[in-house]
Design goal:
Membrane topology: Multi-pass membrane protein
Keywords: Cell membrane, Hydrolase, Membrane, Transmembrane, Transmembrane helix
Mean pLDDT: 83
InterPro entries: PAP2/HPO, PAP2/HPO_sf
Low-confidence stretches: 211-220, 225-229
Protein name: Phosphatase PAP2 family protein
Distance between the termini: 95 Å
Subcellular location: Cell membrane
Helix content: over 70%
Length: about 230
């Protein structure tokens, strides 16, 4: 265990030295990304909900569960952090260069990384609710996790544990809650409240109905040639 922590210390020093060798604009991007990534995940949650309004009840259930599963990932990470009082590397590692951002205050512990847990949870939740999104969300999560080491506020093992923990919690929540939430979506879609129906979406039947209606109107006209032929006989 001590050897793994020593390795994490050395990796932290290597990343910190690399960070200080990069241009100021690149350092600024890393600082911004540690927070902007969370906002981008939020935008993707909204986009996933909006696109699911015309989708199946299962698709809408997964879209609604995605931010909830991410929140669970954060709660579990925060609970674990309160049990493991690991000091931040920006104070604990001797000889380390100054962090690019202000070192969090004493008592705001380092393990695991909450940012990384949120990123890992959001990446998996969105991947499960939006096919093909994994190729965007997983790189986003990994970059966010790396950025926390880059700016100097987390060890590599903090962010690794955070990403894996968040991803696992989100996966379990999505799988466990999919069926009951799908039932709620089906109930909401049959509600008499237009506001509830708008939030849950009308589902794919909203597009099928006009198509079926057009066939219903067309069928009487389609019968006329057949009746005309029978009359002629």
């Amino acid at each position: 265990m001590d050897s793994l922590l020593d390795l994490s210390d050395r990796l932290y020093l290597d990343v910190a030295d690399f960070a200080h060798s990069t241009p100021h604009w690149f350092q600024w991007l890393a600082e911004v990304w540690t927070e902007a990534g969370l906002l981008l995940f939020g935008v993707l949650f909204l986009a996933g909900w909006w696109r699911s309004r015309d989708g199946s009840s299962r698709l809408m259930a997964l879209a609604l569960l995605a931010p909830l599963a991410t929140a669970f990932g954060y709660v579990v990470s925060e609970g674990l952090k309160s049990l493991i009082d690991e000091e931040r590397p920006c104070r604990a590692v001797l000889g380390a260069p100054a962090a690019l951002v202000e070192c969090p205050p004493y008592g705001d512990w380092s393990f695991p990384s909450n940012h990384s847990a949120i990123a890992g949870a959001a990446a998996i939740a969105l991947a499960l609710s939006w096919r093909g999104m994994v190729w965007l969300t997983v790189p986003m999560a990994l970059l966010m996790a790396f950025s926390r080491v880059f700016v100097g506020v987390h060890y590599p093992h903090d962010v690794t544990a955070g990403v894996l923990l968040g991803a696992l919690v989100a996966f379990l929540v999505m799988r466990a809650a999919e069926r009951p939430v799908r039932s709620l979506v089906e109930t909401a879609r049959s509600s008499r409240s237009s506001a509830v129906v708008w939030c849950a979406g009308r589902g794919p039947r909203a597009h099928a109905a006009p198509h079926a209606s057009s066939h219903a109107h067309a069928s009487p006209h389609a019968d006329r040639p057949e009746r005309a032929r029978h009359g002629a006989r």
